[in-house]
């Protein structure tokens, strides 16, 4: 099948504009970033969305939705002119807002009014979102803070490739870590580790670095190159070489 030329070499950027805003200090412990996307396509475009262990609140056309952590890539069709405003919560920190295990949102999108009430549909920019969340900041939750710290530790340290290594670093049992992630992150620790290590593969591709795939697979804790490629395809929608061609290394 012939590929859409708008996928290749980062050409999608000519039809989309992405902005990212850091949260104020009052929300930084719970919100990772605010973001907004605008687009204009004369013909429908199939946008690849790659997963990270975040819960997103999105507002578009008077609707507000909560998107739970996704276990694999998804595609969304963009057509005509449109825009969406979103909030990416820090992994582990949405549980106090939700009042239920975040695993209940895994691979799901729900109406955000069921969690935040009807006024959530009015969020259209960073200012309104900050005022809305600051009025609803939940009580401190040490387990949420632990989960968030563990995910941040995984993201920051490329040497962490196994669940038991992370558990030992944070003085928790492997079973305890698995329960914590199900409750607060919504997806398992093994998946989180693999997702961040595979993201580092895309960074190497973006830098144009030559990669010894067999050695890299072993370094990342894979049995062989085939298992690495399988996981990469599940997360990013295609093998590493295809992903590099599609996104020029910069992601969707």
Can you put this structure into words, describing what you see?
The protein has a six-stranded antiparallel beta sheet. The protein is globular, with a radius of gyration of 19 Å. With 252 residues, the chain is α+β, with helices and mostly antiparallel strands. It has helices spanning 95-98, 113-116, 126-134, 142-156, 163-169, 174-185, 189-206, 213-219, 225-236, 240-247; strands spanning 16-21, 31-49, 56-60, 63-67, 74-89, 109-111. It is built from ten helices and six strands, in the order βββββαβααααααααα. The longest helix is centred in the last third of the chain and has 18 residues, at 189-206. The protein has two domains: 5-134, no CATH class; 142-247, Homeodomain-like (Arc Repressor Mutant, subunit A, Orthogonal Bundle), CATH 1.10.10. 38% of the residues lie in helices and 21% in strands.
Work out the strand percent: 15-25%
Shape: globular
Return the average pLDDT rounded to an integer.
90
- Helix and strand run: EEEEEHEHHHHHHHHH
**Poorly predicted spans:** 248-252
Rg from Cα: 19 Å
Biggest sheet record: 6 strands, antiparallel
Total beta-strand segments: 6
């Amino acid at each position: 099948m012939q590929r859409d030329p708008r996928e290749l070499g980062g050409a999608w950027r000519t039809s989309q504009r992405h902005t990212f805003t850091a949260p104020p200090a009052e929300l930084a412990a719970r919100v990772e970033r605010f973001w907004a996307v605008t687009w204009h396509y004369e013909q429908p475009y199939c946008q690849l969305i790659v997963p990270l262990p975040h819960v997103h609140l999105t507002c578009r056309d008077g609707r507000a939705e909560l998107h739970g952590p996704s276990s694999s890539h998804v595609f969304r069709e963009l057509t005509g002119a449109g825009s969406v405003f979103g909030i990416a919560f820090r992994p582990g920190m949405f549980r106090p807002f939700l009042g239920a295990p975040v695993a209940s949102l895994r691979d799901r999108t729900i109406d955000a009014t069921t969690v935040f009430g009807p006024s959530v549909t009015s969020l259209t920019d960073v200012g309104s979102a900050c005022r809305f969340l600051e009025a609803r900041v939940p009580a401190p939750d040490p387990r949420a803070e632990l989960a968030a710290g563990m995910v941040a530790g995984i993201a920051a340290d490329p040497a962490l490739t196994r669940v038991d290594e992370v558990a030992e670093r944070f003085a928790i049992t492997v079973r305890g870590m698995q329960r914590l992630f199900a409750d607060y992150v919504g997806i398992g620790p093994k998946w989180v580790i693999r997702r961040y290590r595979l993201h580092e593969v895309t960074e190497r591709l973006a830098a144009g670095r030559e990669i010894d795939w067999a050695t890299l697979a072993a370094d990342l804790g894979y049995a062989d190159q085939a298992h690495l490629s399988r996981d990469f395809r599940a997360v990013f929608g295609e093998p590493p070489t295809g992903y590099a061609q599609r996104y020029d290394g910069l992601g969707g």
